[in-house]
Design goal:
337 residues, alpha/beta, UDP-N-acetylmuramoyl-L-alanine:D-glutamate ligase, 9-stranded mixed beta sheet, 5-stranded mixed beta sheet, 12 helices, 39% helix
Length: 337
């Protein structure tokens, strides 16, 4: 395994992320609407263009909030005070403008050129029933067509940590872009972080991820306990940690209400989940945990402090609807650490 590069405060950005550029379109819905539209209540379904148009037309007054896993992580990082940039593909359409506006308004650099109007910008159409359940219907659209030519390798080389969203490893074009980005980061002595994103991604591309890890290409790996089991084949949490930790310099595993555990260069640390008065919406919890952890990491904080920052950020985002922070994360972290 190659030696681990160190984050540098002399770089242009602390973190640059490559991920899906998605706009969440949220609207209240009655139970009968869910049944009438044939939706899988409480679940997430991938949909095509025709279905996306059908469901969008069926929605009541909606709220549009930019989302996407890696973009959510950057929103948390920027709120904490980190310098961030995002690489992701939108179309030249209304939702593409919404996404670009929102991410830039959050203080995040976003220079990826929009492509044509077809396919349209990715969106997640979310129907929220009175019981708080979110029924999600995701159209990936333009986000699946991020070309390697969209990368500015000089910017990647001038950023402390390259953060990759596992979801985007699935389509071929952005997968090739991410491979190129990894090489640019490694050649410049920068760190590469990967979030595994979901079990279905591991089922399809687990061999790729294992090969990257074995080759020493991944410096920081984020997973939840289910993804850890899927990647290692070990159902026992501690056995999974024991198998994977020696192969990656920094391993971070979240366990929902049971907190999180990390191993960095042989050092172990755990943190309990932060108390939350009421869990409203768990969407984005892992994304914001990664934001808090990475912020501590690029600031040179201890492993335990990085975990604590992650737990604080995750607790904030699950206390309200939406996967972007609403409270002052920097103030919350300053109060509790």
């Amino acid at each position: 395994m190659s030696s681990t590069p160190s984050p540098s405060h002399e770089t242009r950005y602390d973190v640059i992320a490559i991920g899906n550029a998605i706009v969440d379109v949220m609207a209240p819905a009655a139970e009968e609407d869910i049944a009438r539209l044939g939706l899988a209540k409480g679940g997430m379904t991938l949909i095509d263009t025709a279905r996306a148009h059908e469901l969008y037309q069926a929605m009541g007054p909606a709220r549009e909030i930019s989302g996407g896993s890696a973009a959510n992580t950057l929103a948390g990082l920027a709120a904490l005070g980190a310098k961030c940039a995002f690489i992701g593909q939108v179309a030249d359409d209304q939702l593409g403008e919404v996404f670009a506006h929102d991410i830039r308004a959050g203080g995040i650099a976003f220079e990826t050129p929009a492509r044509g109007e077809d396919p349209a910008t990715a969106r997640c159409l979310i129907f929220v029933t009175p019981d708080g359940q979110r029924t999600m219907n995701t159209y990936l659209g333009a986000s699946q067509f991020l070309p390697a030519s969209a990368l500015d390798e000089a910017v990647i080389a001038n950023t402390s940590v390259l953060y990759l969203e596992g979801y985007l490893w699935d389509p071929e074009e952005p997968r090739q872009a991410m491979r190129r980005a990894i090489r640019a980061a490694r050649d410049a002595g920068r760190q590469v972080a990967l979030t595994l994103s979901d079990g279905f991604v591991i089922a399809r591309h687990g061999d790729d991820f294992k090969a990257l890890i074995e080759a020493g290409e991944i410096d920081i790996l984020f997973a939840n306990e289910h993804e850890l089991a899927a990647l290692t084949g070990e159902e026992d949490f501690h056995a999974g940690i024991a198998q994977l930790a020696p192969k990656v310099p920094v391993l971070v595993v979240t366990r929902s209400e049971n907190g999180a555990h990390a191993v960095a260069h042989g050092e172990h640390a755990s943190v309990p989940a932060e108390p939350v008065a009421k869990v409203v919406d768990t969407t984005g919890a892992g994304d914001l945990f990664a934001a808090g952890f990475l912020f501590g990491h690029v600031r040179g904080r201890s492993l335990a402090e990085c975990l604590k920052m992650g737990a604080i950020c995750a607790a904030e985002v699950i206390s309200h609807y939406g996967a972007r922070p609403e409270a002052d994360l920097a103030a919350l972290v300053a109060e509790r650490i």
